[in-house]
Amino acid sequence: VDKGPVSGVAVTTAAAPALVDDEAPPPEGNGGISGPVGAIVFLAKSIIVMVLKTVFFTGNFKFQLDGDRKGTIRSACFLLTFTIVHVMGNFVGMIKGPLEANGEGYFFDRIAWTGGLGLVQDFPFSVVEEYLALGLLLHVSVALKRSWDISINYCLYTGRWNMLLSGLTILFFLTMHLADIRFSSEMKYTMLRPPKHFVAWPGLLEGRVFYETDESVPLVRVRDLYTREVELFKDLGTSLLYTACIVVFWLHMLIGWKKVVPADAMQIPKDHVKAVTGLGWIAATAIVSMYLSVVWYTYVADPVQVVHVP
User: Rounded to an integer, what distance in angstroms lies between the CA atom of residue 212 and that of residue 224?
Assistant: First the structure.
């Protein structure tokens, strides 16, 4: 069965310029470090390099947006790195209870001034959120450009639309999630004793990271993210919808990672490609498992009652 472009479109696409994506080919062999250790070393090195070059060193922003593959690869590595940190915070916060969950949220709220470089009082977004937004915008825009240039003329059954359709589903999910949590009009507030230096260093061995128990630390009004998550995930329909979207996210990561690892931009030695692909799939599965655990633990567990303030 011919799984090429839809019949009749070759003439219209033949003149399109070829996309020049990659850099020098990855090294042959094992790169000088063999076995699982080599796979881990080169994976870590590639992720660090990709994260450091996320937005401003991709080559996509000229006088027009192009489809250079580095834009999707580097932004994907950055977004995955943030996702790992985010899901671990969510997972620990929900298991540990409202103080930890709300303390984590306030950790980001108290650095909101960085978004305006200290020039605007009460700036709504921190520099972390701004950079995340840039990374997401880069990833989505370049992915859409590449899908239009490469996959748009193929039929659905060829599988060439898998990343586009799953990506659009994730974009819908992110929009819904931001509306449910970050920009919710139903957010309640409570009081918390935040660490003076952002993290409760003496409490780390106790598993206490984002709040203090010392009553000499003044109370601060913070968003009650814990209660908001309970309100969301106690609803079966919402939990099922989140579950479906998270599973699509998992498939998107599995398919995308298999495409990314052999890319020239990653510079993974060829002997390590299979192992690095497997490591990425393990990480993706762990991420999704923690996200699903947050949803369904919240659904079945008895919530902790939180005292609210105006």
Answer: 16
